[in-house]
Protein 1
Amino acid sequence: MTTTHAYAAQNAKSALAPFEIQRRALREFDVQMDVLFCGVCHSDLHQARDEWRNTIYPVVPGHEIVGRVTAVGSGVTRHKVGDLVGVGCLVDSCRTCASCQEGLEQYCENGFVATYNGTDRVSGEPTFGGYSTQLISDEAFVLSVPGNLDPAGVAPLLCAGITTYSPLRTWGAGPGKKVGIVGLGGLGHMGVKLAHAMGAHVVLFTTSASKIEDAKRLGAHEVVISKNEDEMAAHANSFDLIVNTVAAQHDLNPFINLLRRDGTMALVGAPEHDHPSPQVFNLILKRRRLAGSLIGGIAETQEMLDFCGQHGITSDIEIIPMQQINTAYERMLKSDVKYRFVIDLDSLRK
């Protein structure tokens, strides 16, 4: 076992603070890495403060991880020492259910093992995430990072990137399709970039006129102020797909009205409280679909990373030292970041 420096929350009220964890001895198919960068996801805050009522304390958050391989188990064939690699939200699954067999480990019917706040399937011990100097994961859940991309900017792709890529791919975003992205935060800005790179006509929905210029810089062809009824009405019955990234409770009906017949709105934002139920006839009369989507499987996540490598796509980030994580959480609550905090783990090694 290896002593690893980390930051952890001890309870729902405590700030994150220095903490030491013991990483396991290498198993046959394990990959050990020095963590270089770790993105800060809003779900990290939810878990640290037990807002989803399932946190195992102490909790070491972090599931947008880029690192350098330092050791491998005797059976590892996919990665070698020195490789630049990534780990996202999953570090294991049952691997035998129908979903796992189809490469959809995020929907594992026996429950996937989360990178943190999960339970290791072998030892039964809690998993600890990327707010730490070292990580160990089974090679089947370790991804290759394209060498032409900035490693710090890649980190948020492991959650924010795949969370938006998966519904865009599932519901066919591409040339000739009109795609809406609701919200311009950590998820939304990646949705705009990816949908644009896929060749779709991209419309960004925001409540803030101050975000119009930035949305167009990121790749939106149009920007709609969602509080403006006339602007919304001008797009009625016209969208093939809307990816809703907003993680706060809100009325879905105005966006459902914008879907064409057989259009889909995919929810990827995870609010603390459920949205009000939509009007059923808004769905029935146009055969519209209201769907949900959860990150992506390992194969799809690697596909997303390769796609980003081909198109030069990374997240817009602000790099912080580990010691500023509590301030970053407070700023994140105020949407005071463009568009993702990324922790430089060298700050913790020092």
Note: Residues 2-159+297-349 form a domain with the Quinone Oxidoreductase; Chain A, domain 1 fold (CATH 3.90.180.10).
Protein 2
Amino acid sequence: MIPVRDIVLVHGGFVDGSGWRGVYDELTWDGLRVHIVQNPTRSLADDIRTTRRVLDRLDGPAVLVGHSYGGAVISEAGHHPNVTSLVYVTGFAPDRGESVDALIPGGPPPPILPPVEGFLLLDRERFPGWFAADLPDQVAAFMADSQVPWGVDALRGPVAEPAWRHRPSWYLLATEDRMIPPPAQRRMAERAGSTVVEVIGSHAVHISQPAAVADLIRQVAAG
């Protein structure tokens, strides 16, 4: 496998691409070209198109990385001819016809507030403990107050044909995640045939452990 220079990072729900800053710094320091997708998270179909537009601009192969809901996005956008491999960072990995909504596991549900005009938010007070438990209080509070409303149509949008059936994939499992519990992550990773790497971290592991996330992406890019 020829080493890959381009890395495309796709964020999840309730947040935007700025959460990838630590991973971006790690990878660009190594000379990799990193591209941050800023999805509006209104619908899965729209976010797939937005991600594909970023891939269209590349002049060579790329590793496509998705965090959380971004995993659903890369599962469809990963069919793009520039994509050589997929990396799920505590992400949803839907199969044919599945949506993120269908993959949310049983047990105590995340503190998602009732939809308003078709968009969802997490309860501000409970955001840190569920999404960002291993981040400093001030950082977690800022994330809670700067949430991006997540469209119900994005949550419920089905994946037609998962790219993990046609591309090699890796899965970074966050052992302290409450949004997507580790057993659910493991089930999706095993179903996708992904190589699994475990990291001690919350759902915001890409922010709290950027070096560990970047190290996995770096290894995938190097082939």
Note: The chain has ten helices and eight strands.
Protein 3
Amino acid sequence: MSSHAVEANADGLIGPTHSYAGLSPGNLASSLNKGEASSPRAAVLQGIDKMKRLADLGLPQFVLPPHERPSIPFLRSLGFAGTDAQVLERAWKDAPSFAAAACSASPMWAANAATVTPSADSQDGRVHFTPANLVTNLHRSLEHEQTQRALNALFPDASHFAVHPALSPVSHLADEGAANHVRLCADHGSEGVNLFVWGREAFEAWDGPFPARQTREACEAIMRRHTASNVVLARQGRAAIAGGTFHNDVVCVGALDTLFFHELAFEDLEATKAAIRAAAKGFEPKFVEVSAADLPLADAISSYLFNSMLIQIPGEDRLTLICPTETRDNPRSHAVAERIATSNGPIGRVEYVDVRQSMANGGGPACLRLRVVLTDEELAATNAAMRMTDELHARLTMWALRWYREELRPADLADPALLEESRGALDELTSILHLGNDFYPFQR
């Protein structure tokens, strides 16, 4: 039975320490821009404006708060002592790589926040969330506890929502969240197909040039936890990982009955398509494939064509693809995008958004958002203060202009004044989003 449901987006609000520290091996943009000056203010405003654009299109849009950075509790756990400013200073002096990890604004990429199973696909009729443990990268492994707090704040009603803790933080259960999960369905409220994409098996000897960040066993554990139905497990293409596809959402995106992907996305493409068809109930999946001849993998990654948001705008029959401006600026990806939109297929048009500050660190429009399918009743049970409105957009814009620096270089992360600025910003944000006065470690 199908109930009315919509696909909401929860975007990560970009934090005051947004910088280009090059902390993510295999993420080519992150490595390429290491050491460059970033603009936290431009970054957060780009993110806020993107959220407003989705809300204006009629889609429910929520804000996930940034994490406290620098993470002083993490540095204290490494034995650094004294005042918070002294801890930061000593960590940068004696363990700069750990200090850099403690300052990362990477929670902005909410596609890695969690894996989500809608109530239509779970046996107990609740929406299930498992925050990703993100163990492959040190700086991201620090996120899952605070992410769990944020999800509990946004989805507080236990009769509708189940927010689980992350899987054990071990490489055998390496989990990168929704960046490796796609849901296909006839409509959002009906039972869908849950496509989990994994890069390696837990006990497999991995010899690729870049890490395979998701294990099959992590997918299986989440599937069991969430009592998810109609699951398809597919192996990520080895060639894609070797080429810099650190998450499946760099080469694949899906919405409703449509899967849009690069031909190298899956190790066994035909078997994956057959499994999806077999699992689909009440609909025939539509596959929109782009060949390596039309778009070489390197162009797919640099342009982030597939790290776009594939959405259904209310009142429109065909899907809209929201791409980063980098897709438009690359002649090959631009040609592919425009051809798809004019080919009378399931994707009817392409729009472009400026998220250049995020893109320079290797995160496109799809990286910034966590998709959550919600029924009308579930939508009413969310924290309304975290939902994007004209008023919230105005308040967040003023907040960002007040607290965020125009320019930040990696060396500036050691500045104790930045610690105080960040805490001031987050302290004010907790009241704006109704998060309570004990949401962050420094408030406790």
Note: The chain has one domain: 5-69+104-443.
Protein 4
Amino acid sequence: MIRPDDCLVTVATGYGFAETAVTVSFLEGHGIPAVALPYQLASVSWDMTVALGGMEIRVPARLADAACFLLAEDAQPARPEKGRSPWTLWPRRIALVLICLLTQVPPPPRGIYVVGRAEVAGYRI
């Protein structure tokens, strides 16, 4: 018999393979079983990741609060290194934009978007 707290709920959405795999490993390393869907389909056709709505990272409903807490804690922006100016990355960013414009190929989507705790807590069967 399946209990309601055994159902999987989405706690984050990933758009890059590396970020999604690291996030799933991070959650599993803290004892929270996690799965990314549709990771296999997106690995075959990475250009369809946005059309698929990203790769949803799902955990059991009973562990959703702990997963949201860990992801919110981990999502804090890193502090810049001392002595390194944020302006040093601008030439690379401008070159990337120019390459994408000249080749007319959009850059692949990247990043992890964490679902708010209120949205996950409001999930009921």
Note: The beta strands are 8-14, 35-37, 55-60, 112-114.
